[in-house]
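Design request, tokens follow.
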């Protein structure tokens, strides 16, 4: 899928900082929000974004404005991803051509270095590769898949 497809987009409040990277790595356009709730609601409305929050009041305000909001019950990445997959159909497969910069949300470009796969962010210039942290990333994604399988349908 390319930009402009019907993939869900998200806006995540500051309490859930670690979710940002996960959603971006999995290729989902995700904004990080630090600031007042009213503005967040405006952005979510304008850009058609699903709100992820641990703040009950914010979830209520969102619902009152007819917005989709998911009140996150815990801060465990794999469980949250499993739930988002169930609710919104997000994919729990890593797609090397459809992954986003964890820092700035821009789609990454894959570059073929001689010996390893690398990605570069055309926006902020950061480079990524499958280093030692990669195993941890894959483990969380695998845990999310297992958790998702437990939550059928
Ligand atoms: Zn970037």
């Amino acid at each position: 899928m390319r930009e402009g497809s019907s993939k869900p987009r998200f806006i995540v409040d500051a309490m859930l900082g670690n979710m940002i990277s996960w959603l971006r790595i999995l290729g989902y356009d995700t904004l990080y929000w630090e600031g007042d709730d009213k503005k967040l609601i405006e952005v979510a409305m304008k850009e058609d974004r699903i709100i992820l929050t641990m703040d009950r009041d914010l979830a209520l305000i969102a619902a009152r404005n007819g917005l989709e909001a998911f009140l996150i019950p815990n801060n465990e990445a794999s469980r949250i991803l499993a739930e988002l997959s169930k609710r919104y159909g997000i994919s729990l497969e890593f797609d090397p051509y459809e992954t986003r910069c964890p820092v700035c949300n821009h789609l990454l470009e894959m570059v073929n270095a001689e010996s390893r796969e690398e990605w570069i962010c055309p926006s902020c210039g950061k480079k990524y590769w499958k280093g030692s942290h990669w195993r941890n990333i894959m483990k969380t994604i695998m845990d999310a898949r297992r958790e998702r399988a437990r939550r059928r349908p």
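Comment from the thread starter after seeing the answer: thanks! The chain has a mean pLDDT of 91.
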